[in-house]
Amino acid sequence: MPETTTKPRTKVKPQTERPKLYKVILINDDFTPREFVVTVLKGEFKLSEDQAHRIMITAHRRGACVVAVFTRDVAETKATRATDAGKAKGYPLLFTTEPEE
Ligand code: NFA
Fold first, then answer.
1. Which residues contact 41 (CB under 8 A, 6 or more apart)?
2. Is there an atom of ligand 1 within 6 Å of 67 CB?
3. Burial class, 69, CB count within 10 angstroms (exposed 0-12 / middle 13-18 / buried 19+)
4. What is the ipTM for the molecules in this complex?
5. Does residue 28's CB lie within 6 angstroms of at least one atom of ligand 1?
6. How much distance in Å is there from the Cα of 29 to the middle of ligand 1?
7. Which residue stretches of the chain are H helix?
8. Residues 42-92: pLDDT tens digits?
9. Could you tell me if the CB of 55 is within 6 A of ligand 1?
């Protein structure tokens, strides 16, 4: 009977893990001027005038709107910078972050 030998095998974890993504969410308020919101969206999130305007209007009508998704660090940095841009002008403009499902 031929002997069967088994080679030791090392289980390698597949390199397919992606970082969890976080949404940056624009919150509506009654005070921040529309055009200022558009300017911040263009500057911080590199959106076109058209994209920025759509997101601003969606937040204005529905209360909030997802701006974009990023890794956690990038999402938090951008949300903070965009919120601070409003704060610097005395506006209550707010961007939050939330993990994607
Ligand atoms: N609701 C604000 C206004 O009417 C505009 C706005 C939109 C503010 C989206 C914040 C977020 N001036």
1. 26, 47, 51, 52, 55, 56, 67, 82
2. no
3. middle
4. 0.98
5. yes
6. 5
7. 34-45, 49-62, 72-87
8. 999 999 999 999 999 999 999 999 999 999 999 999 999 999 999 999 999
9. no
Domains and CATH numbers, the chain: 28-99 (3.30.1390.10)
Determine the Cα–Cα distance for residues 33 and 3; give it in Å rounded to an integer.
80
Q: How far is the CA of 62 from the centre of ligand 1 (A)?
A: 11
Ligand 1 binding pocket includes 75 (Cβ within 6 Å): no
Q: Cβ(83) to ligand 1 under 6 A?
A: no
